[in-house]
Q: What sequence folds into this?
């Protein structure tokens, strides 16, 4: 792994630790998504090799598990959990965030209600077109980001053919393909403009479903080369998400991860100018409070999303992050071990039955 | 509320649900245009407009709307995407429509040769098979030569020509095209597009290995 240094390491660590304690008032609207914010903060600390700065890991783990819904999935926050029964719904993005946080905190995922979780994920799929909702209340449109969360969860927890059949996979994959835009990148829903983040979600989902670069791969060599070209064209100095849009630090992860997934045999640094990306991210560091801003402008503050994804992107470019898992390499061994452990224990259970 | 929170996913979806319940999308186009005044490329507003147009069959005037936006800002990728979406879902891609869109995009390339959106649109109209229309490709090849003589070229044009020649090389085992493509990739790497020099070098060496 190559090293990267954007300076102010201690202030970024302080920034993420503060996020874990209290959010500034301007983030009040994100209260329902505390788990997602926690993922960004813990993820940021892990990327800075500072996860051990979190001294009360077990307290966090307990808090996360307190947000688990007995019938599967995780609520975004205590407020979401305590809503009246007909409104309180776990959310797939919160569930993804919960699992990521638990992995980062060193938990073995033993207390996840796996069959309930997988059945709940399946229930979020629209059988008509293979898309996924975020929650059972239908409060948001379906979205490729939710497909990505579903793909990650069904892969990690080893959904079997009864829980997520080949037909289900084909259906989900057909939806992903229907989101491909004319320039070969992927949009949020069919017909939408393609961009870097959703292209990542599409390719990572295909990877988890076993439909990328495999015997059953659904994208041709030509299409993948076009996707590589789209991603490579997203660098001005830093990286952006759509043609003729300004650079934005969070796309350091999204677009570069899509690039890596589209062509895994070639290093990202063989395609992009990594020093320019690094310099752009450096220019977006918030000198006052630590963390990273969306872009290099005086009236911008650092925010958890851009702070996390900028670091994740640099980690990826400097060869230490596995794109589809959004995790540093050092966590993958444990993730795969957990995956095998879950598979074995479920096999044992079903044999006993 | 929407104007204060134009990037909130739930509010836009809420609006869609209300349109469904009322079975009425007649006010939505005007509403998205209010948002476009603040932010021409607002992703949610465009998605909402596409949803309304498809759901209520309101394609009339949409192609012209997209084209007008491209007069104001030829680099508006959302407008290019909307143009493609409208044709795809209304007239469809007949031979005649493809020809007229090829003329349209060539016109726009005359205005701004550095417009990635237009180059992407051109490739999309050609189904990304550049060798399917050799006349068009030859036209660009000669354009490249003219610009090169003036000592001035552009990366997107050069990339298009190089890709066409590379495709021709593979299809026809045409060494001459291959050599020319490698030259252009090298020019892209060293001169026209140095940000992506590693990428152009990679393409150049892949192609060299095949010739």
A:
């Amino acid at each position: 792994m190559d090293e990267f240094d954007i300076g102010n390491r201690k202030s970024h660590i302080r920034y993420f630790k503060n996020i874990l304690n209290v959010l500034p008032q301007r983030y009040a609207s994100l209260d329902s998504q505390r788990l997602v914010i926690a993922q960004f903060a813990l993820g940021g600390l892990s990327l800075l090799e500072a996860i051990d700065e979190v001294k009360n890991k077990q307290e966090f783990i307990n808090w996360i598990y307190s947000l688990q819904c007995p019938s599967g999935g995780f609520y975004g926050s205590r407020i979401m959990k305590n809503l009246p029964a007909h409104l309180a719904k776990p959310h797939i993005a919160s569930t993804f965030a919960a699992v990521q946080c638990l992995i980062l905190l060193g938990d073995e995922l033993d207390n996840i209600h796996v069959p309930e979780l997988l059945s709940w994920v399946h229930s979020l799929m629209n059988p008509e077109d293979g898309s996924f909702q975020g929650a059972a209340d239908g409060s948001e449109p379906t979205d490729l980001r939710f497909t990505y969360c579903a793909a990650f969860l069904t892969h990690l927890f080893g959904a079997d053919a009864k829980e997520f059949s080949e037909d289900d996979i084909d259906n989900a994959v057909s939806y992903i393909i229907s989101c491909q835009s004319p320039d070969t990148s992927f949009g949020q829903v069919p017909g939408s403009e393609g961009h870097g983040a959703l292209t990542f979600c599409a390719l990572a989902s295909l990877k988890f479903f076993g439909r990328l670069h495999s015997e059953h791969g659904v994208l041709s060599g030509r299409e993948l080369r076009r996707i590589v070209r789209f991603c490579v064209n997203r660098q001005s100095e830093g990286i952006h998400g759509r043609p003729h849009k300004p650079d934005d630090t969070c796309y350091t992860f999204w677009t570069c991860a899509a690039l890596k997934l589209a062509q895994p045999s070639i290093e990202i640094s063989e395609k992009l100018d990594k020093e320019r990306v690094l310099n752009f991210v450096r220019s977006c560091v918030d000198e006052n409070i630590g963390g990273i801003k969306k872009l290099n402008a005086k009236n911008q503050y650092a925010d958890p999303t851009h702070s996390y994804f900028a670091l994740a992107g640099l980690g990826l470019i400097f060869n230490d992050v596995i794109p589809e898992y959004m995790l540093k390499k050092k966590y993958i061994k444990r993730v795969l071990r957990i995956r095998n452990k879950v598979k074995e224990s479920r096999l044992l259970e079903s044999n006993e039955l | 509320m929407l104007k204060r929170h134009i990037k909130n996913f739930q509010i836009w979806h809420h609006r869609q649900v209300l349109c469904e319940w009322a079975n009425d999308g007649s006010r939505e186009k005007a509403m998205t245009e209010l948002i476009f005044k603040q932010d021409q490329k607002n992703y949610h507003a465009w998605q909402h407009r596409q949803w309304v147009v498809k759901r209520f069959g309101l394609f009339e005037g949409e192609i012209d709307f997209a084209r007008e936006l491209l007069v104001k800002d030829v680099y508006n990728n959302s407008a290019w995407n909307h143009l493609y979406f409208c044709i795809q879902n209304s007239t469809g891609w007949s031979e005649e429509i493809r020809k007229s869109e090829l003329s349209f995009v060539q016109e726009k390339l005359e205005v701004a040769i550095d417009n990635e959106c237009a180059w992407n649109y051109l490739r999309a109209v050609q189904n990304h098979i550049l060798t399917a229309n050799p006349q068009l490709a030859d036209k660009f090849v000669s354009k490249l030569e003219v610009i090169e003589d003036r000592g001035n070229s552009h990366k997107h044009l050069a990339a298009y020509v190089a890709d066409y020649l590379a495709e021709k090389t593979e299809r026809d085992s045409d060494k001459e095209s291959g050599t020319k493509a490698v030259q252009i990739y090298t020019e892209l790497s060293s001169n026209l597009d140095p940000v992506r020099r590693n990428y152009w070098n990679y393409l150049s060496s892949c192609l060299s290995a095949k010739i």
Observations:
- Chain B touches chain A at residues 5, 8-10, 12-14, 16, 41, 43, 46-47, 50, 54, 75-78, 81, 84-85, 88-89, 115-117, 120-121, 123-124, 128, 159, 195-199, 202 (CB under 8 Å).
- The mean pLDDT of chain B is 89.
